[in-house]
Amino acid sequence: MLIVFIRGLVVYVLVTFATRMMGKRQLGELSPSELVITILISNIATLSMEDPSMPLITGVIPILTLACLDILTSYAALKSRRLRHFISGRPKVLISNGKIDQQVMKELRFTMDDVCASLRNSGVFDISQVQYAVVETTGTISVLLKADYMPLTQKTAASPETDKNPPQALISDGDIIGSGMDGIGLDEKELRKELKRRHLEPEEVLLCCIDSKGALTVIKKEGPPAKILKQGAKK
Amino acid sequence: MKRIIISIAIIAVIIAMGCSAVMYIGAHNSRLYGHIDRVLSAYSSNKNVADEIESLKKYFARYEKDLGAVVNEDILNDMSASISKLLSMYLSQSDEFSAECEAIRSCADRIQKSEIPAWHRIL
Hints:
The complex is a heterodimer. By secondary structure, chain A is an alpha+beta fold. Chain A has helices spanning 2-22, 32-50, 57-79, 81-88, 102-108, 112-121, 154-158, 188-197, and strands at residues 92-96, 99-100, 130-135, 141-145, 168-172, 175-176, 205-210, 215-220, 228-232.
């Protein structure tokens, strides 16, 4: 009995350490890989606590290995967009310009009930009020309402906004995102030309977004503080 | 960055511990084999068998304690049961005395082999 108690104490300290080491990402919404790691750690911890015939080390080593691999994978994913997409997937645009993309619904195996439930969770009870909705990699839906249903601000009171999709990221961490250019009338060549005009290479850009009017927002990498340029782009 | 270094350090320590565990078990096993050989030679010459069995028992107590942290208890229990049978088998002139000694050796061998990474064990 005492052995199980002491094992419980050791496993508690170890799991707390492993979770703390993996960082605050564990405390919020979990991405698929984080969910898998969390379930695995809890399972291994239970097994090594319950079975006194198993050496505790056979539970300690996999827990530490999983925690370390999670940290190393997160670091590698931070450096590589491809790996990040492979591990966590990509956000999917479910509603664009107020229109539901049924192909995306099929891909995600979302039913209309799931979509409505997720929208209700975001405080939207009428789907016709939605201008743009994205299914994030964690499975939650982020919603942008149509201009008519947006809360009134000083800016919108002075000049009411029209319905528009949020800005699309074209470059993230120096990588050109091909999918961001779909349907905006700008190709990679033009983007490079536009950046060259600003004396920049794509590798020097932390984030480059284009809004529905074709205006580019460019945030440079490094250089404290980050220089933000905003200019109208040539379409 | 600190976490990355800690993670790499932990993985390196785990790998080092795994390698040293194989060597540690190997060192313990060769001492155990020595004791078993002494018991068998004493048995064949019929001299000091009880003393050698006692010495094997004493060594096994240490072996069990040291390897208990890395080896499943079931296999150590099997070895312990075999060793405790030896004296009574010798006193009753059992034919299976040598076989029981070989069974202990085989268990020790299995412990060491189970720690060596091989595809058939991983898969």
